[in-house]
Design a protein that fits this description.
mainly alpha, 64% helix
Length: 134
């Protein structure tokens, strides 16, 4: 029977270091996620009266989503502060939902917990953005 010290070199030789499959899968998943994000946010920003092309740059799109929620784009910097970013994301979701005529339940579940689904609903439904509702 082998002891752990004797078996360790044998186990180390059995492990493979080829991670190319996971790297390719991650890259494909990232590209698909990016395409879905752009497809969901582009019409949303257009409805909100913001430049839609900024959906191509996700970090910049966050600034314009915050503007669509009726806040200054500078408030987007709050996403960089731990704990505060969670509270701020809820506030943006509630204000964005209200701007499109939806209530708190829709905003919390579909704009905060599952934002991609919520953005698709806002983008491709007949909802209109009204900054007076904010």
């Amino acid at each position: 029977m082998l002891t752990f010290l004797e078996a360790a070199p044998l186990l180390a030789n059995m492990q493979t270091t080829d991670n190319s499959g996971s790297t390719v899968g991650g890259a494909i998943g990232g590209v698909i996620g990016y395409i879905l994000f752009v497809a969901a946010v582009w019409p949303l920003l257009r409805k909100a009266g913001q430049p839609a092309w900024v959906a191509l740059i996700p970090v910049v799109a966050a600034f314009f989503i915050v503007r669509a929620a009726g806040l200054s784009a500078w408030w987007t910097l709050l996403y960089l502060i731990p704990i505060v970013n969670i509270v701020f994301a809820v506030i943006v979701a509630l204000r964005l939902g209200r701007a499109f005529g939806h209530g708190a339940l829709f905003s919390i579940f579909l704009l905060w917990l599952f934002p991609l689904i919520g953005y698709f609903i806002l983008s491709y439904s007949r909802d209109t953005h009204n900054s007076a509702r904010i």
